[in-house]
Design a protein that fits this description.
It is a single chain. By secondary structure, the chain is mainly alpha-helical. It has one domain. The chain is built from nine helices and two strands, in the order H-H-H-H-H-H-H-H-E-E-H. Helix 5 runs antiparallel to helix 6, helix 6 crosses helix 7 and helix 6 packs parallel to helix 9. The longest helix is centred in the first third of the chain and has 32 residues. The model has no long low-confidence stretch (mean pLDDT 85).
């Protein structure tokens, strides 16, 4: 029942997000593909996919922030939390289901747009290595999970159907800009998501091994933020 409830609460936002992400990225690929042959510079067609990956990363952050809004605090704001609180389950269980559902939807938002992008790109008789797709998806998911966790924490602290998303987007933009400095880049989940430091300009392909330790650090930060979110809801007096 909890899983179905979590799905019902987010399905409209999820469908809009996944359609929006795939449509936007696919359209950009089609339009920019027309510009490459007429460019005076020799540009690898693979560089196009990496550039659109940056667009996907930004839209993905906005999407997961909107997806993760909701939960007990927002239900309390509209006066519907009494039903949820009467269910014979703990607040930890309620939060866990919501978090896992959100993470699953965020992962689908990572993979599906890339598969559609690959199909559109492949329709132009160009082949793109599967390993490159896996690399991009790994970077986007590993860095993006910090923004997912941040959205959950904000929705557990800030009350209001519209206030929480605005605060979430604002804090995410501030975080991205605050860590723009070169010496702070290693700590920026946004820079990690985009993955430009691994890009070979000549070929348009990512090089090197998967940065597992770097990804583990961001996952650790996300786990800490999610734990704080659960603790806040457990101690909240509804």
């Amino acid at each position: 029942m909890l899983w179905y409830k979590a799905w019902l609460e987010t399905r409209s936002r999820f469908i809009i997000a996944i359609v929006g992400c795939t449509a936007l990225c696919s359209t950009w690929i089609v339009e920019f593909s027309k510009l490459i042959p007429s460019s005076r510079e020799v540009i690898s067609p693979f560089y196009l996919l990496h550039a659109i990956h940056g667009v996907l990363a930004f839209v993905w952050i906005l999407s997961v922030i909107l997806l993760m809004m909701g939960g007990l605090l927002q239900e309390h704001a509209v006066g519907t939390s009494s039903f949820t609180l009467t269910l014979p389950v703990s607040r930890f269980h309620l939060m866990s289901v919501r978090i896992v559902m959100g993470l699953a939807q965020a992962f689908v938002l990572t993979v599906v747009p890339w598969l559609v992008m690959l199909f559109v790109f492949g329709s132009a008789s160009k082949t793109y290595p599967i390993s490159q797709i896996c690399f991009h998806v790994f970077l986007l998911w590993s860095g993006g999970i910090v923004f997912v966790a941040l959205a959950v924490l904000i929705s557990s602290i800030v009350e209001g159907q519209y206030t929480a998303p605005v605060v979430g987007i604002g804090i995410s933009v501030l975080l991205i800009n605050a860590l723009k400095a070169e010496r702070l880049n290693p700590y920026s989940p946004w820079t990690f998501m985009v993955g430009s430091e691994y890009l070979q300009r000549r070929t348009g392909l990512l090089s090197g091994q998967f940065p597992l330790l770097h990804a583990a650090a961001f996952c650790s930060v996300a786990i800490l933020l999610l734990w704080l979110s659960i603790r806040v809801i457990q101690q909240r007096d509804f």
